[in-house]
Amino acid sequence: MTINLITFASLLHNQQTVYHAHQAILSELEKHFTVNLVDHTLIHSLPQNEFSVVFIATGGVERLVMQAFESLPRPTLLLADGMQNSLAASLEISSWLRARGLKSEILHGEAPAIIRRIQVLYANFQAQQALKEVRVGVIGPPLFLAHCQQCRLFVGQTSLGNTICGYTHRKGTGKLRSHHR
After folding, report:
1. What is residue 38's three-state secondary structure?
2. Which residues pair with 166 in a beta bridge?
3. For residue 139, what is the DSSP state?
4. Cβ distance 56 to 93 under 8 Å?
5. Is the dihedral of CA 166, 172, 175, 177 positive or negative?
6. CA distance linking residue 71 with residue 78, whole number of Å
7. Within a 13 Å sphere around the CA of 78, how many CA atoms are in the beta-carbon half?
8. pTM exceeding 0.70
9. Helix (H, G, I), strand (E, B) or coil at 8
10. What is the rounded CA–CA span in Å between residue 180 and residue 51?
11. Three-class DSSP category at 75
């Protein structure tokens, strides 16, 4: 498993300093993953189909994250190890993202717990990526009509009141037949 750690550190620190200051968590991650430390200035060059975690290495980076928030992975996973005020910065960043309706999660605590959580999130990410390439269809009559209050969507009915086609399988022919109402 490969993860990109998009590193946000105060301008007073360089990449080598960051690695040495956070060697405990980074070495634990490297036991389980292939870790690519990516400077936040290169966030625009990361492909959307790669698993990325935002590593808040120091405090004082809230403004840098806010400036790059359009390019942050969604949902935004913030890794903080508590060193150099990173947890406080992560809390502030998470609050700022949530105020704008974006999902975020702070990964903080003991290394084994963080690693287990990243493994679950990585598996979820892979499943989402796989579903982007798949066409999904429903065969048979709908069992219920679902309604989403937020988006005013009726599953089974269009905004014009037309019923969405349901498909049934004709036995023996292998053909699909559309039912319109």
Report:
1. strand
2. 179
3. B
4. yes
5. negative
6. 14
7. 30
8. yes
9. strand
10. 42
11. coil
Nearest to 1 by CA among 35, 27, 33: 33
Tokens found for residue 131: 């579903």
The whole-number pLDDT of residue 138 equals 58
Tell me: cis bond preceding 75? Omega within 30 of 0 counts: yes
Are 2 and 36 in contact, with CB atoms under 8 Å apart?
yes
**DSSP conformation class of 132:** T
pLDDT at 77 over 70: yes
Distance of alpha carbon 161 from alpha carbon 164, whole angstroms: 9
CB-hemisphere CA count at 13 Å for 95? Answer: 7
Reference 22, options 64, 82, 65; nearest CA is 82
Count Cα atoms within 13 angstroms, Cβ side, for 14: 1
Structure tokens at 160: 């014009």
Residues 6+ apart with CB under 8 A from 117: 107
Indicate the DSSP class of residue 163: B
Amino acid occupying residue 53: V
* pLDDT at 104 (0 to 100): 96
Answer yes or no: are the C-beta atoms of 19 and 54 closer than 8 Å. no
Tens digit of each residue's pLDDT (9 = 90 or more) over 128-153: 888 887 776 656 555 445 444 444 44
